[in-house]
Amino acid sequence: MPYVNIKVTDEGVTPEQKTQLIKGVTDLLFDVLGKAPESTYVVIDEVPLTDWGVGGMNVADYRAARG
To answer: Where in the numbering of this chain does the 4-oxalocrotonate tautomerase-like domain appear (predicted)?
Structure first.
């Protein structure tokens, strides 16, 4: 049983967008692994923008540095 955990920042992801993420991951697991949708678990966690980063910088600082 595949389990996928998606992390998105808390920047206003809509319920419709979350639905599309779940559908896309479920379809991908079916296409790539041949797993039936009913055996797939997709969890979406919303995390604060400052809670994770890229290259040692939190996302807010990383975006600010890139302009």
So the answer is: 2-61
| Residue (of 19, 45, 21) closest to 29 by Cα position | 21
Contacts of 43 (CB under 8 A, 6+ apart): 3, 4, 5, 6
Three-class SS state of 54: strand
Contact 9, 46 (CB under 8 A): yes
Indicate the length of the chain as a whole number. Answer: 67
Whether 11 and 48 have beta carbons less than 8 Å apart is answered as: no
- Respond yes or no: is residue 2 known to be catalytic: yes
pLDDT in tens, 50-60: 767 767 777 77
Residue at token pair 């041949």? 34
pTM of the model: 0.68
